[in-house]
Write a structure and sequence with these properties.
By secondary structure, this protein is α/β, with parallel strands linked by helices. The protein contains 10 helices and 13 strands.
C-alpha cells in the first residue's frame, strides 16, 4: 500500500471518529445564516492536520474550479477566520472552493523563529502541509491548478509570504492582510517565477507595525519582520515591476471610521503580474469591513471603505499560471 493511500485511510478514520464525537462538525452557523462546511484531516509527517472546507453551491463536478486558501491569524483556527472574514459568502457569490486550514496550536511557522510557539520551536513543516493539502483537494474536487490562491490575516499573512517564496510553482497569487514578511524568510526567499502580490495594511497597526522591526503584542517582541514598504519593495524588485506606481484614493465611504484608503499599484512587471498595496491610513490590526467587533484600544480602527473579500477576489481572478 503506498503512502498516499495509507494517509487517506488514517485520515478517514480520524474524521469518522470526529463526526461521531462532535455532532456539529459538518455544519457551522454564521450570522444566523446556514453555512455548509466540511471538516477534513490529513496525516502529514506524523501529525494529524485539520481544515474546514467550503464548497459553493455552483460547484459542478464536470468543471474546473479555483481554490482559495485562507490562513488564520495567530492563536486562531479555520473556524475563527471564517467568522472574522465571512469569505465563504464571497465563495458562494463567485464560485471558488475555499479552505481554512488549522495551524498547530494556533500558530503558523512563518519563519520568525519565536520559541514560545510550538510550530516555530519544532520547525513544523507548514509549507509541506499546505502543498499536500492542495494535492488532496485536487483529488477530491476539480481544482484548476492554474488558479490556486492564498490569503491570510496577521500570522496567516506572514505565512502567505513564506508560501509565495517556497511554493511559488504551486501558488498563483497571494494577498496577505495585516501581515508582512519575516526577516529570516526574506533573507533566503528565492521565488522561481514572478508572482502577483496584493497587500492590505494599516498605518497604525499596533501588532504588525508599518515600520516593521518586530511583531508586537503589548511590550512583547515576537520575531523580526520587514516593514510594509520594504515588503512591497521586495516583491516589486523580484517581479521586475516599474518603480513608479500608480496611486489613487478609494472613496471615503464611512467618514466616521477614521480611515482613508490609498491604493498603490506597481505595474509593468514580468509576465504581466502586479504588486498592489492598499494603505489603510489610520487603520489598525483589523480585516477591513469585518463583521466582528475588535476593541479599538487593542487592535486599532477597522476601515469600512473597502471590502477586503471583494478586493482580494477581484485581484485573484485576474491571474492564472
Amino acid at each position: 500500500m503506498n503512502n498516499r493511500k495509507w494517509t487517506r485511510i488514517v485520515s478517514f478514520i480520524f474524521i469518522a471518529i470526529s463526526f461521531l464525537t462532535i455532532s456539529n462538525c459538518a455544519r457551522v452557523t454564521v450570522n444566523k445564516k446556514k453555512f455548509v462546511g466540511y471538516r477534513g484531516a490529513i496525516l502529514h509527517k506524523g501529525r494529524m492536520r485539520t481544515y474546514l472546507i467550503h464548497i459553493p453551491p455552483s460547484y459542478n463536478k464536470e468543471s474546473f474550479i479555483p481554490l482559495v486558501i485562507a490562513l488564520h491569524g495567530g492563536g486562531g483556527d479555520g473556524k475563527r477566520v471564517e467568522k472574522i472574514t465571512l469569505m465563504s459568502q464571497q465563495s458562494d457569490k463567485d464560485g471558488f472552493v475555499l479552505v481554512y486550514p488549522d495551524a498547530i496550536e494556533g500558530h503558523w511557522n512563518d519563519g520568525r523563529g519565536v520559541n514560545k510557539y510550538r510550530s516555530h520551536r519544532e520547525d513544523i513543516d507548514d509549507v509541506g502541509f499546505i502543498s499536500v493539502l492542495i494535492d488532496v483537494l485536487a483529488e477530491d474536487y476539480n481544482i484548476d491548478m492554474k488558479r490556486v490562491y492564498v490569503t491570510g490575516s496577521s500570522n496567516g499573512g506572514l505565512m502567505s509570504n513564506r508560501l509565495a517564496c517556497e511554493l511559488t510553482d504551486r501558488i498563483t497569487a497571494i494577498a496577505p492582510v495585516i501581515g508582512s514578511i519575516a526577516e529570516n524568510i526574506a533573507a533566503r526567499c528565492l521565488p522561481t517565477r514572478p508572482i502577483p502580490v496584493l497587500m492590505i495594511n494599516g498605518t497604525n497597526d499596533p501588532m504588525v507595525p508599518w515600520e516593521g522591526e518586530y511583531v508586537r503584542f503589548g511590550r512583547k517582541k515576537l520575531g523580526k519582520i520587514l516593514s510594509i514598504p520594504d515588503t512591497v519593495d521586495f516583491w516589486v524588485s523580484h517581479n521586475g515591476c516599474s518603480p513608479m506606481p500608480e496611486i489613487t484614493w478609494e472613496s471615503d465611504i464611512d467618514p466616521e471610521d477614521g480611515t482613508r484608503v490609498r491604493k498603490i499599484v506597481y505595474g509593468k512587471c514580468k509576465d504581466g503580474v502586479e504588486v498592489v498595496l492598499y494603505e489603510i491610513q489610520g487603520g489598525g490590526h483589523t480585516w477591513p469591513r469585518s463583521p466582528i467587533y475588535l476593541p479599538k484600544f487593542i487592535f486599532g480602527k477597522t476601515s469600512q471603505d473597502i471590502d477586503a473579500n471583494q478586493t482580494i477576489w477581484r485581484f485573484f481572478k485576474k491571474f492564472r499560471k
